[in-house]
Amino acid sequence: MAVPATPARAHGAMESPASRATGCDPGHGPARASAACRAAAKVSGAALAQWDELRVPNVRGRDRQMIPDGELCSAGLTRFHGLDLARADWPATRLAPAARRTFRYRVSIPHRGSFRLYVTRDGYRPTRPLTWSALEAKPFLKVTDPPRRDGAYIFTGRLPKGKTGRHMIYTVWQTSDTPDTYYSCSDVTFSAARKQTASRRPAPARTTGSAAPAGRAPDTSASPVADTSPAKPPRDTELLVAGGGAAALVLMLATGGAVAAVRRMRIRREL
């Protein structure tokens, strides 16, 4: 379907995540030296310098009827057909699914209006021309009249969940103070969020002894103290000793008496 040409006026395009239009801008585009942008330049030439001119008048929400399949990135404008090239090496912004993201839509002339952001369905292949059926039916983010700072509209939203690999974010900016609607293609790669595992400290080793930690003197405040006083013999031993002493005394007395008796007998004989 042919789209009517419009007078040359500058307005805007998605800058973060980078769109093909802003990325391939021959003056300041961060991807202008890429193979994909060089290929687009062979098709579109100097038109790529008009990164903010992908707009169509009088669409009034009839995007799917006005913008033909295979020409979504050029908004159906012949001079921008280089942006429709189906290839796998378009520079892509890395994103995390379901993460909150701040979007930046660069503008040269501000307008009031609303933004609708779509993402491609699972199974999207960048080597095939982009069609409306390749996009999810509903936008994952809608914003009206976001604030403008440093030459761009800034708004925040949550990225779609469950996406992995290469995808396209397709942005539609429908202005409310002009009849124009703007279109941007942003190549992205969704990578799974890294799982952070909590570090677990190893459990202290169990010990069977009561040794104190290295570098620290053992605590003796509650330790039993050895009794250094002379040991007292058991009562049975005392009785045994006492009994033994008495027996020895009786033996000594008996022996002494016998000796004395022998001496008296010897004296009598001598007399």
**Poorly predicted ranges:** 1-10, 207-255, 258-262, 267-271
End-to-end distance, in Å?
174 Å
Molecular shape: globular
The CATH first-level class of the largest domain comes to Mainly Beta
Instruction: Work out the helicity level.
Output: 10-25%
Number of E strands: 10
CATH level-two architecture of the largest domain: Distorted Sandwich
Structural class estimated from helices and strands = alpha+beta
Percentage beta strand:
15-25%
Q: What can be said about the biggest beta sheet?
A: 6 strands, mixed
Mean of pLDDT: 79
Using the coordinates shown, work out and report the CATH topology of the largest domain. Answer: Coagulation Factor XIII, Chain A, domain 1
Give the CATH superfamily of the largest domain: chitin-binding protein cbp21
Oligomeric status: single chain
Region (Disordered): 1-32, 194-238
Keywords: Membrane, Signal, Transmembrane, Transmembrane helix
Organism: Actinomadura darangshiensis
Protein name: Chitin-binding protein
Structure explained in plain terms:
The protein is an alpha+beta fold and 271 residues long. It folds into 2 domains: 12-190, Distorted Sandwich (Coagulation Factor XIII, Chain A, domain 1), CATH 2.70.50; 235-271. The chain is built from 4 helices and 10 strands. Strands 2, 3, 5, 6, 9 and 10 form a 6-stranded mixed beta sheet that branches. It has a 4-stranded antiparallel beta sheet with strand order 1-4-8-7. A hairpin with a 2-residue loop joins strand 7 (148-149) and strand 8. It is globular and about 40 Å long.
